[in-house]
Amino acid sequence: MASKNPEGGSADVLELEDKLARVRSQLTSKLDNQKNLALILTAVEENIDEQKNPRTPVAYFVSFLSLLEQSVVEDSVADAGVAAAAAYFLDLVLPFTPAPLLKQKFGPILTKLAPVLTSSDAEAALVRSSIGALESLLLAQDHQQWSSSGNVSPKRALVGMLELSFDPRPKVRKRAQESIKNVLSNPPASPSPVHVAAAMCGELSLQRLVTLVQDAPKSKKGSSKESVSAIVHALQLISAITSANAWPPAQVEALCDVLLEVSRTSDQYLVAAAFSAFDGLFSSMSHDIDVEKFTRVLDIIFDLKPPVDDAHLAASWLAVVANGLQSFARLSPETCVAKISSIVPTVAEFLVAESKDIYVSASQCLIAIVTECIPDNFLLQPTSTNGVTVEIYETVDETVTFLAEFIEKELFSIKYQHATKEILELATASVLKLRTRANPDFIPIVETVGQWRSNEESNFPHNKEAEDLIAACISTMGPEVVLGVLPLNLTGAKSNEPGRAWLLPILRDNVRFASLEYYKQNILPLTDFFSAKIAAAQNKESMHIKIFETILDQVWSLLPHFCDLPTDLPTAFSDEFASSLAELLYQKVDLRVTICHALRLLVESNLAYSEGALADDLLTQQEMPVSQAKDNLAYLSTKAANLLSVLFNVFSSTLPDSRGFVLETIDTYLQIIPKADLETTFNKVCGLLKQALDDEAAAADKPGKNQNKKQPPQLSVTMMDLVVAMAKYVPESSYNALFSIFSSTVAMDKNALMQKRAYRIISKLSESESGEQAIRRFIGDIENVFVQSTGATCTSARAARLTALQSVVKLLPPTDLHFIPSVLSEVIMSTKDVNERSREASYALLIQMGSKMAEGGVVENNKVPGFDPQAEASEASLTTFFTMVSAGLAAQSQHMISATITAISCLVYEFKDQLPQDVLIELASTVELFLTHNSKEIAKSAIGFVKVEVLSLPEDLVRANLGELLTKLMKWSHEHRGHFKSKVKHILERLIRKFGVEAVEQAIPEEDRKLVANIKKSRARAKRKDAAGDAEAEGKQEKKFMSAYEEAVYDSDSDASEDEEKKPEKSRRKKGEDKYILDTGDEPLNLLDRQTLAHISSSKPKKFSKKDMERHNVETKNGKIVFKDMVGKNDDPLANKSSGIDAYLDAVKQAPVRGQKNKLKFKKTKDEDNWSDSEDEAPKRKAAIKESARGRVGKPKQKFKARKKL
């Protein structure tokens, strides 16, 4: 608040006026307190204006102060409402009042505020505002005022505020604590940086806390809650004082002592409050001048170290130590690093504790010390630019050596055996923090842990933690360092060393930024050894051979990870190594995925690194500069041409379903190949493509066998795939050849595979900037090719064509907008395509065309095929585009009309906010006419448009046309086929939600109002079920749609009600399905036994008594139950018939017969001759009558029959 009035009077008047204006605006508020404030402000301002005084902060201050004085009579509040308003405005105005005035009139102002602050009957809002006013008053006082003593002085006022910080009302207490913090954080100008009243506040608050803590054990059980609350309040006040960096140094030791004493309680609120006080103490010391003070605080905390086995205090003390050291590391990192060697042994003493909670807390504290107290930049080599000096480097080096030796020689001793898991976690965290600086100090630790892991006989219980440590060492120090002390020994060369095949998966998951040469020399030769073993084996199915094959696969799986940003790429990836990989690509089909992955990672890792992927990793940046990654890419570009030749050959010999990974690798090397080599390679591929097309054309004239699906595709298709892959990267000199291939292959109406790939050339080109420029340059020719090939497009190539059209329309210049109407009819027809990808592409293309037309331009209609050459040009706009689309409504075919309505629905949904209302009305009225069409295909699309209309168009527009709309729509409410009836019902439900039942009932034809009544009953039933907690739809997966438009058209919120109507009895029955475990006698139920399911029943088991057996006429014979009534029930049902003829006659009577219109009629099972016309399965018979909840007897009500979901 002091910042609002820094110079004692020149406050931001505009800010004050803005706050007062917000209060004035509440004159019409429905809340009485807000309205009362606005009325009082208005009255005060009228009074100021009558006296012809300007509305300055001083005028407001004097007016509201006198108003407060009038509301207080004989030190008690007479008018609480006026007093609260006056205090509120004083809190608002005082920060903007000139400081000299507040200094001069401090005594009178405090005297007028004091009755409100000290009144026991004052409301919380009044006291809070008065505290805010007092805060502003204290902030305005200078050092001299604060140093004075007396009954009316700033210190005396602050003491009163300290008392209010213990007020039982939470908001009053919080405001007082915040005010104290603000006052102490902004000391008046003086030689001392600490506030004059800081010592007094610290002493009083600490004294209050000590008293409360000492009295707490003496309190009775009933008052323990109150004493805990009082201690929490005192701790909150101390947190406010410490956060203001105002705690007196002389009281630090006493504070730490009592805070640790509070921390040993089991009450989580007290512990949290004590830690908050520590946090405030630590965070407040954030300047260089506080280093000495912070060091003393830490020394005091360590002097207060509790006994190792103190279950209550140890964990709290360790948490405080970790928090304090983290804060100290931010303040003085160099000093903190130097302290680690003396701190770690002290904390490690708690690892000896028998209590698991204590030694786990100790390990977490040690991990926090290591990871947070050593800054990342301190691990760098000293240079003149990174701020790391030789002294810092040596300090860190000594610390690393100390940590390694302490872990190996001290923590790995038998004394800490019970905490081995936690110690291994500490070692892992240390290695991950220190990275390469852990080498060579941590190598003995790796060797020891590796021996523990390798010794299978000892059954080491912490293998996971040991493997985590080894994995951390591999990822930070490198695999060559780890394998140097823990060799794989898979060949058995060293008989005294154990084999470590378990290291292979760990290597695979953690190797990165390693030496590729090391893999070549030391790991890759293992493949030859095990391949020879497998080849020499007679029994290929033996267990040993399976193990050898697994090891062989694991060794090869390491190759991609050693190729992930290798440190020695130029020397390791030699021509010899590259040729050996190429040979393996040809010879070993099962290794192609692994080798291609490795080749791809060589490029991708260096590309990502050179583009700043690891810019935040300072240590990696120092060990491998970005320039080295760029050099690696330059080196790989010299090998790219030869590698691409190999990959092309592999690609052409691989089946289409299994060569995606090869194409990804090709794409990676096309990014780095030199332009000259790329052009040469492209020309070769074009030559092979032409030759393949000629050969295939010649072979087509000769009769031959059809191609086997398991054989590689035609060479022309493979070459075309390569052309598509290269299209994005070819230089400008190759664009003529590329577009020539496009124009010639698009016309192949009998070769769908080639046509599809031809369109992909345009899509691929548009992915690069140079490709987009090329499309713009040849845009006219491309447009002509698309227009001319409209009729020659294969069905399977349509999705690729539409995707390519999106790229062309996106780049259309304003002068070529005639291309849009030239292909518009094809796009509209594609909305009805069977292929979902084609439909989605057509929707996206329609929206893109609309956006392009909305940008403006000229449509030269004389250039559109089929238009009059003398047709005039039209201005491009969204309305013009809708006119073009609407022309399809006049088509002769029903299919085209239906597709046009679908297209209009999609466009209206997308552009509803940009179209004029008259256009929307015209579109809606035109499409609604087709609701009366006899064609179901057209009507179905029109109903879809109505749904979009109801969802998207303005309410007033739909309401005005509601009667006419429903009259036309209800024609299809009786049509069951094609889900027409259910769709109409969905639309009605939407309308009812939007306009209410009454409006829909008035607008709907009278003969169809029973449908509205049915919907009302369904909704009421659904509400009753929801109220009963019977949420049937819970747990069902939501339906997914490809686009927002399709979701709007096809989704419906009424599915729940539909489901509810479908099978109410079934759902009701399912809800109560419980499972019961049958009594198994004296033996316990074995849940691992497969026979357990036999003891689980869906019906509640019942024990039969003797009376039950008599009532049900049950006899027992030889321990078995015999049911007399059931004897003969399972016999032949025809046994009671006199002859087979009687049975035949009964069967004939019960059989269905053909009625009118050849429909099956089923006779009811009662005596009456009642027939039902239905070809559906006869429903289960219900009771003839049922009793309602009110005791009346009524008939089962007929339900609406359209129960099928959309």
TrEMBL record:
<dbReference type="InterPro" id="IPR057860">
    <property type="entry name" value="HEAT_RRP12_N"/>
</dbReference>
<feature type="region of interest" description="Disordered">
    <location>
        <begin position="1153"/>
        <end position="1206"/>
    </location>
</feature>
<feature type="compositionally biased region" description="Basic and acidic residues">
    <location>
        <begin position="1106"/>
        <end position="1117"/>
    </location>
</feature>
<feature type="compositionally biased region" description="Basic and acidic residues">
    <location>
        <begin position="1177"/>
        <end position="1190"/>
    </location>
</feature>
<dbReference type="GO" id="GO:0005634">
    <property type="term" value="C:nucleus"/>
</dbReference>
<feature type="region of interest" description="Disordered">
    <location>
        <begin position="1096"/>
        <end position="1117"/>
    </location>
</feature>
<feature type="region of interest" description="Disordered">
    <location>
        <begin position="1048"/>
        <end position="1081"/>
    </location>
</feature>
<keyword id="KW-0539">Nucleus</keyword>
<dbReference type="InterPro" id="IPR012978">
    <property type="entry name" value="HEAT_RRP12"/>
</dbReference>
<dbReference type="InterPro" id="IPR011989">
    <property type="entry name" value="ARM-like"/>
</dbReference>
<dbReference type="GO" id="GO:0000462">
    <property type="term" value="P:maturation of SSU-rRNA from tricistronic rRNA transcript (SSU-rRNA, 5.8S rRNA, LSU-rRNA)"/>
</dbReference>
<feature type="compositionally biased region" description="Acidic residues">
    <location>
        <begin position="1048"/>
        <end position="1059"/>
    </location>
</feature>
<dbReference type="GO" id="GO:0030688">
    <property type="term" value="C:preribosome, small subunit precursor"/>
</dbReference>
<comment type="similarity">
    <text>Belongs to the RRP12 family.</text>
</comment>
<protein>
    <submittedName>
        <fullName>Uncharacterized protein</fullName>
    </submittedName>
</protein>
<dbReference type="InterPro" id="IPR052087">
    <property type="entry name" value="RRP12"/>
</dbReference>
<feature type="domain" description="RRP12 HEAT">
    <location>
        <begin position="354"/>
        <end position="654"/>
    </location>
</feature>
<dbReference type="Pfam" id="PF08161">
    <property type="entry name" value="RRP12_HEAT"/>
</dbReference>
<dbReference type="InterPro" id="IPR016024">
    <property type="entry name" value="ARM-type_fold"/>
</dbReference>
<feature type="domain" description="RRP12 N-terminal HEAT">
    <location>
        <begin position="29"/>
        <end position="240"/>
    </location>
</feature>
<dbReference type="Pfam" id="PF25772">
    <property type="entry name" value="HEAT_RRP12_N"/>
</dbReference>
<feature type="compositionally biased region" description="Basic residues">
    <location>
        <begin position="1192"/>
        <end position="1206"/>
    </location>
</feature>
